[in-house]
Write a structure and sequence with these properties.
Length: 145
Amino acid sequence: MSSTRQSAVMVGVCGSRASAAALQWAAAEARRRCARLRVVRTWDRQFHAAYSPAAGWLTPDQQRGAATAELTAEVRTAFGAAVPDEVAPELAEGSAGRTLVDLSADADLLVLGSGSPAAESVGPVIRACLSHAHCPVVVVRPAGQ
């Protein structure tokens, strides 16, 4: 029996300039491959910045709402109001590194953006994905870096 799974390029987004560059690169690559583009934004109800006062923490529903709004804004910025059918925005709950690694099992390529100025300096999410993803990983830097 043959599989009819469509090829998929997955890009992790977070609202940063590097993330926007990765989304643009991934969209072009998905078009070249005639693949579906999965635009993934993670959120983690367990994460709170240690330096922020507990009174300012968002509830899980507020966190989900903020992540949804950020994902929608990034997709609209990249594609305009008419998002192509082959683009699938996805909101996924969990820590970014672990969640992207898990989701990469259903992707042919994972694309991430890095704003780190030094090529050898990447953050923990990119390190986790480079070490454990189930598919090749491409790291994109914004123009000028």
